[in-house]
């Protein structure tokens, strides 16, 4: 009955959607609704949420898991624990000790990995469909019964510290810029880095990590997704491996939306290893479940991200920047739009800032046409559909389903995007993209800065030739 009702509702939405979108002529929505109609979502008695999406044309399947634990859950003195524990889950469990997990999956040609974020930690393994039972056994054993020995903890502490050195400490500008940005949200759950501090990582012990596991790795804080060629016994196997996992008595910690009053902030970060100046601009926005989140996502794409963005259009001929990069932080309880720019030799950081603020001002003052907004939505949907091409991306997305999207894990976000109006677009541009932004000037050694300043004063042709020779 539930499957029949879901199918009827999906068919109705598929029929109504084109009528509601007649002015936009959005293509691809039917495929999204049809794919979602094949998803079955249910919960075990212990609170674990399961998503099943059978795809008979696949020869593999992906098992993806997401836990509602990340850097924001870490207590003082335990920064980096979520990330360190993620490493530990690849290094032995009660019935698969040591490197058994990696050895058995590698022998099957499986792909597996994990990542830690501020709000969550996720895991995935893509393996042959015939290995479903083994995959579920290994996942359940390491999540429920990890083996945390002094030797493995020490080894993974060293691995994490090497990662910290390679990705943060040995990269120009990264450490000092990261610490400055985290200071903007100090005294909040997001006020420290995901990778943690050297001191906290080195002081972690099997006992403290075991306590972290007991507190946060719990079935009612987990979503398990299986996508691909699924065996008829899949539900029985999930029940067999996960149903006996008991949820703790204490409730799951809830976090509120951050209350931050944006202020204009400007700082210079100097790094003697810096090869060239750079510019970071950032605006405080909202968490991903906020009513304004969809309009902000479209605005970010229109300003900085798409190949037809405002920044891309003015950069087609004689661009002011050699490089631009925007990867917004879309957290559950907060959001940050950011843009990193590397200037051409003849362009100053002030010039770049004024150029970006002019683009923002145009979005605030000029109402977007219906045709342009429709195209922006179509581009968003195309990118969304492209992300659903593989079992891995589909399973990972399903395991990240928010509470508000529980009934429609694939289409709910699209519905919010499609509901954005030109008035919404202009309103969020005015409300969030104000002069109360963060500006970080990334500065190299004095002699590079001096040379760069001289190039800014030279005629364009001369500075371009010198720029090519220098860079």
Overview of the structural elements:
- The chain is α+β, with helices and mostly antiparallel strands and 471 residues long.
- The chain has 2 domains: 39-242, 2-Layer Sandwich (Cytochrome Bc1 Complex, Chain A, domain 1), CATH 3.30.830.10; 265-470, Metalloenzyme, LuxS/M16 peptidase-like (Cytochrome Bc1 Complex, Chain A, domain 1), CATH 3.30.830.10.
- It has helices spanning 2-20, 29-36, 81-88, 100-107, 132-144, 150-169, 174-183, 198-203, 206-216, 234-242, 293-305, 310-314, 349-365, 370-386, 391-399, 412-418, 422-432, 446-457, 460-470, and strands spanning 40-43, 49-54, 60-67, 111-116, 121-128, 222-228, 265-270, 278-284, 321-325, 329-330, 335-343, 438-443.
- The chain has a 6-stranded mixed beta sheet, sandwiched between helices.
- Strand 10 and strand 11 (335-343) form a beta hairpin.
- The model is unreliable at 1-22 (pLDDT under 50).
- Belongs to the peptidase M16 family.
Structural Rg? 24 Å
Number of helices: 19
- Roughly what percent helix? 40-55%
Please summarize the sheet with the most strands: 6 strands, mixed
Largest sheet: spatial strand order: 1-2-6-3-5-4
Family: Belongs to the peptidase M16 family.
Keywords: Signal
GO molecular function: metal ion binding
